[in-house]
Amino acid sequence: MTKPGPYELLAKIMIDVHGSLQEVKFLEKPKTFELVFSDGTLLKPSSEDDRKHWYLNHRQSLLEYLNAGYGGDPLHVLTFGYSGTGSHNLVRFLKSCGFTSTEFISAETHAAHQELPFVLKADGSRTPLSLEAGKHL
Question: 118-121 and 21-28 as β-strands: parallel, antiparallel, unpaired?
Answer without folding.
Answer: antiparallel
